[in-house]
Write a structure and sequence with these properties.
Strand content: 15-25%
Number of helices: 20
Number of strands: 22
Low-confidence stretches: 1-29, 144-152, 349-355
CATH superfamily of the largest domain: Histidine kinase-like ATPase, C-terminal domain
Bound molecules: adenosine-5'-diphosphate, magnesium ion
Distance between the termini: 125 Å
């Protein structure tokens, strides 16, 4: 290196005065070595990084890989247009050299490199204008800060100071007439730069690990960290000359070029699933928001899936660099079963490596992903029933909750809803769309009933009328339905009603003459009311009962009985609404009771029977509060019935 090459001329390198505080400090030792002061805010920032930022020191590896990959990306770009390229034949790659004995870590890339000016401006100053404000806030909060926020300020390089006391950067920019420089700093107040002989393009960063961080000179450790962060970096990564990243950024391949085996492998790699996915979806969005995504739907829900809401789903990459797998904002909760990768260039490179939860970009991405996934599922629903049902069986419960939270996509989710009905055989599922096509011409409402299992549902007295008249009823057996169905309330302009509710109009079609007269009906109703008192809201003659003597109904404002049960499970003090008791004026029992009532209105059997009827309907609903009284009364009846 010749002294004539001394670079300290301001005119030549466009250094601002501020950058050159006290240069040429160490002329005796090496006339080429120049010392620079960090700017005041940089000093504060470094202090914070060294002492309080980042809870996980291993992120420095990710930051270095990220910078190397950025530098390679930039080089790849300038190479397209520029003529005088240094070592044009040199392969694009990243090489890490570890020496566990000396505890050294070296990372070298063949990327764009840095000029002197860039070294000073990029490595010596804080790029983001928000940083000062950030620092002021930290001061206000008395230095207790969320270390995760630091990534937002584009100072990833300095995270290396978490594991070392001094960094050396040797770099040479990509043009043939560039020079090599060595930048050295302890990350305190100043750094030095000297010109060096460097033959090759790119940047080499070297440091000695502090004792407590020696393990980062161990290739197994570094490999496992790399696997997590950068396995899909597009350039080869070598550790001590061994290539460690094998899987390519599949989502950057064209759809036609995808090979299913690779996709399966990739899916397994990112999910730790041992089965291949049920299906995948590739997106390549350009325009309002730019991103590529490779999304998978697993065959089977991971264990504890519904309970473990922190489960990882999408991995976010920014230009092929892994950012995070815990950005929940990329997907609505009800699509949490989707796995895969989203890679966007639209997050500024200096935006958060640690936590980007809600940014305008993530929101845009979420909106696109949501509608694409719903569309994808709709396609299965219409064209691949078997797949859809398999999917729905695993993740339907979660999907259904979407109607309660995503108003924008509510209609699409409702179309994806599947359930059993009185028209389907045991485990078959149907949809609203199919239901509507089967509706009778005169039917203008959609009916459902909730219950635990199909058998019990079909014995529900309120179901008798529908069965007899062959009107389809939707069976809701999933507890989630209790929450989501009330949000649907209408489909295709037809109201959706619970058959357990009182506000359904029934044709009174029982022409049977052996029905109680209107007068007798009114009298027995009064009797029921006086015996039951405020245990019921009302007693009415039923138009819907066929075989049963009575049934309980919910008032039009009340909650479904099943829903009430859920509420009570969550809140012990929750009091359900009172019921309406409907009685069947054609049923022999009711007629017998009316007869007794007309001659002996205080008869004990009459009174007991009325209570027994009411409590029996409560029992069917699952709400009998006094089973012992019920049983004892029944014993009384049996004693009388068996008397000789
Ligand atoms: P960010 O990457 O978010 O810009 P960093 O603190 O990680 O912030 O890096 C600061 C800057 O230093 C980069 O923007 C880049 O200009 C420069 N730099 C860091 N590492 C390299 C490298 N390996 N090759 C070229 N330039 C680099
Ligand atoms: Mg960086």
């Amino acid at each position: 290196m010749t002294k004539n090459n001394n670079f300290s001329s301001k005119e030549h390198y466009f250094l601002s005065k501020n950058d050159l505080i006290g240069f040429n400090m160490s002329t005796e030792a090496n006339s080429n070595l120049q010392q620079f002061e960090f700017k005041a805010e940089m000093k504060q920032l470094l202090n914070l990084i060294v002492h309080s930022l980042y809870t996980h020191p291993e992120v420095f590896i990710r930051e270095l890989i990220s910078n190397a990959s950025d530098a390679l990306n930039k080089f790849r770009f300038v190479r397209l247009t520029e003529q005088s390229i240094l070592n044009p034949e040199k392969e694009l790659g990243i090489s890490i050299t570890l020496d566990p004995e000396k505890s050294t870590f070296t990372i070298e890339d063949s990327g764009i490199g840095m000029t002197l000016e860039e070294l000073v401006n990029q490595l010596g100053t804080v790029a983001s204008s928000g940083t000062l404000e950030f620092l002021e806030n930290i001061k206000k909060q008395n230095n207790s800060i969320d270390g995760n926020l630091i990534g937002q300020f584009g100072v990833g390089f300095y995270s290396v100071y978490m594991v070392t006391n001094e960094i050396t950067v040797e770099t040479r920019s990509y043009t043939t007439d560039s020079k090599g420089y060595r930048w050295v700093s302890k990350g305190e107040n100043s750094y030095t730069i000297e010109e060096i002989e460097k033959e090759t393009r790119g940047t080499k960063i070297t440091f000695t690990l502090m004792d407590e961080h020696k393990s980062y000179a161990n290739d197994t450790t570094v490999k496992s960290i790399l696997k997590k962060y950068s396995n899909f970096v597009e350039y080869d990564i070598l550790i001590n000359d061994e290539k460690v990243n094998s899987i390519q950024a599949l989502w950057h391949k064209k759809k036609e070029e995808q090979n299913e085996e690779d996709l399966d492998e990739f899916y397994k790699f990112i999910t730790n699933d041992f089965e291949k996915p049920l299906g995948y979806l590739q997106l390549n969005l350009e325009g309002n928001i730019n991103f590529k995504a490779l999304l998978f739907i697993p065959q089977t829900a991971p264990p504890m899936f519904l309970r473990d809401a922190t489960d990882k789903s999408l991995h976010l990459y920014c230009n092929k660099i892994f950012i995070s797998d815990s950005i929940t904002d990329l997907l609505p909760e009800y699509l949490r079963f989707v796995r895969g990768v989203v890679d966007t260039e639209d997050l500024p490179l200096n935006v958060s490596r640690e936590v980007i939860q809600s940014t305008p970009q993530t929101t845009k991405i979420r909106n696109v992903i949501t509608s694409k996934v719903l569309q994808f599922l709709e396609d299965w629903l219409n064209n691949d029933k078997e797949k859809y049902d398999k999917f729905f069986n695993q993740f339907g419960s979660l999907l259904k909750t979407g109607v309660t939270s995503d108003y924008q996509n509510r209609d699409k989710i409702i179309d994806l809803y599947k359930f059993q009905s009185s028209n389907t055989s045991n485990y078959e599922l149907t949809t609203f769309k199919e239901y509507v096509t089967r509706m009778k011409p005169e039917q203008n409402e959609i009916y459902y009933v909730a219950g635990d299992v199909r058998d019990n549902i079909e014995k529900n007295p309120n179901f008798e009328y529908f069965k007899k008249n062959n009107i389809e009823v939707i069976y809701l057996t999933d507890p989630v339905d209790m929450f989501s169905f009330p949000y649907i309330y209408e489909y295709d302009k037809k109201q959706i009603k619970s058959i357990d509710k009182s506000d359904i109009k029934f044709e009174d079609e029982s022409e049977s003459d052996d029905k109680l007269t209107e007068n007798d009906s009114a009298t027995i109703i009064e009797k029921f009311k006086s015996v039951l008192g405020d245990r019921v809201e009302d007693v009415k003659i039923s138009n819907r009962l066929v075989d049963s003597p009575a049934s309980l109904l919910v008032g039009s404002q009340g909650l479904d009985p099943q829903m009430e049960k859920m509420m009570q499970m969550m809140d012990k003090d929750y009091k359900g609404g009172k019921r309406i008791l409907e009685i069947n004026a054609s049923h022999p029992l009711i007629k017998n009771l009316a007869k007794i009532n007309s001659t002996d209105s205080n008869n004990q059997i009459l009174n007991d029977s009325i209570v027994q009827i009411f409590e029996g309907t409560s029992l069917i609903e699952g709400y009998l509060k006094s089973p012992i009284d019920f049983y004892n009364r029944m014993v009384g009846f049996m004693v009388k019935a068996t008397k000789e």
